[in-house]
Write a structure and sequence with these properties.
Elements lengths: L3 H23 L22 H16 L5 H14 L4
Helix pairs in contact: 2-3
Length: about 90
């Protein structure tokens, strides 16, 4: 038979371990967050042919038609892009 004293010691040990596990589970998700990785410096992209065309074209259209809305200016610039010969 198991000695009652040893059995009680085993129960106490198991209760202690169980208590520690419960504490760890309660604390899960809490506490300090991991340090965020520093973001790498991004190189600016080279503008596309469309972007290089549309910027000055919109300024030109707006200069010649100051009362036009931005939507109308963009529409005219896009039409001008469509009619450009492909290179």
């Amino acid at each position: 038979m198991i000695d009652e004293e040893k059995l009680q010691e085993l129960v106490n040990t198991l209760e202690g371990v169980l208590g520690e596990l419960k504490d760890q589970l309660k604390g899960k998700g809490k506490g300090k967050k991991a340090a965020a990785k520093p973001k790498a410096e991004k190189k600016p992209r080279t503008p596309s042919a469309y972007q290089l065309f549309i910027g000055p074209k919109m300024k030109e259209i707006k200069k010649n038609n100051p009362t036009m809305t931005q939507k109308e200016v963009m529409k005219m610039a896009a039409e001008a892009w469509k009619t450009q010969p492909k290179k």
